[in-house]
Amino acid sequence: MPRGCPRRAARRATARDHPPCASPSALAKFADRGITGFVDTRGRAWNLTSYVEMASRSALGRAAVQAHTDRLGAAGVELVIVSDAPEECPRCKPREGKVLRRDGAVGAGTVEVEHATEDDRMVSVRVAGSLPEARAAGLMHPNCRHNVSIYLPGLTRPAGPKKARSRATYEQSQRQRYLERQVRTWKRRPAAAVDDVERKAANAKVRAYQGRIRELVAETDLPRKSHREQIRSSR
After folding, report:
1. I need a surface site. Which of 39, 57, 135, 184 has the fewest CB within 10 A?
2. pLDDT tens string 66-79
């Protein structure tokens, strides 16, 4: 299968969105050690399931990108292009669709490279820096939807301004994540309720937040991810 094949890219994206067995395994290990949650260095409180989901997906995504760029390096490919992903965050947006050096010097500039198919023909390519530099600035952050693919000088045409149609804004996607967390929070409340009044109030909150999710999904093209509203399975 040729490099840059859409089916391969789709498999990588699917693997990032749905880590196969890493989350259940990590959850079991943490549970054995009695860990249920913690606060990170930025003061954010993490539910164990949410943290394991994020860490597993992010580690898998980083490994996929590293393996891909290592293969490109072995083939002598020095330039890559950043994908155009929906609901991109402010940290990633400046580098969407940009050409980067796979490794090497930092900083934007123009490089002269050999044409991908025509011998003895050089082409000028505008690069936005290096991949390590971009990653240090936030690209490929935890839960990042972006990836990189081979850039063929003289053949690859960088996308214009936002070719991929976004389903919603970044803020709307984060709003959905917030509402999903609230559903999970209130689903856990009945177990600690002291009477039927508290249980009914908690269940009412669940229905209210689920209603707000339905409204948000109706207003945008965001998909409803019901599994993220569950509390008894890894997300």
Report:
1. 39
2. 899 999 999 999 99
